[in-house]
Amino acid sequence: MTTWQKYLESLEKNFIWRCFLDKYFSLGRDLNQRDTIAVRKTVSALIKLVYPDGVFTKEEVEEILVRALEYRRRIKEQLKKMAGMEFFCN
User: Fold this and answer.
1) 3-24 vs 33-50: helix axis angle to the nearest 10?
2) Counting beta carbons within 10 angstroms of the beta carbon of residue 64, is it exposed (0 to 12), middle (13 to 18) or buried (19 or more)?
3) How far apart are the first and last CA of the chain?
4) What stretches of the chain adopt beta strand conformation (E)?
5) Cα diameter, the chain
6) Which of 35, 36, 43 has its CA nearest to residue 18?
7) 3-class DSSP state for residue 15?
8) Which class for 32: exposed (0-12), middle (13-18), buried (19 or more C-beta within 10 A)?
9) pLDDT tens per residue, range 56-89
10) Residues 6+ apart with CB under 8 A from 57
């Protein structure tokens, strides 16, 4: 398999999980754009690590999504402690 084929295959897997995420889950309006991007990237990374073959169920993705949202909440709490007013409004 060539490098180009591997690249296209990785894009296809990335597209498949994103469609799956958008089809079954909504992140809501409470997250700003920065948080939404961070959560999506975290979900993407965790799915690739836990399910490298690309086979997963809705319940498994839901569990990963819940963890990603919790991780983002913890990061924002730490940023508020470190940077003070810069992250207070978010």
Assistant:
1) 120
2) buried
3) 46
4) none
5) 51
6) 43
7) helix
8) exposed
9) 888 999 999 999 999 999 998 888 887 766 655 5
10) none
Residue linked to tokens 């948080």: 35
Q: Per-residue DSSP letters for 39-63?
A: HHHHHHHHHHHH-TTS---HHHHHH
The whole-angstrom separation of Cα 6 and Cα 20 is 21
Two structure tokens written together for 34: 């920065």
Residue with tokens 């409004």: 89
Task: List the structure tokens of 23.
Answer: 């089809």
5 φ, ψ to 5°? -65, -40
The answer to whether the pTM exceeds 0.85 is no
Two tokens at 27?
């992140």
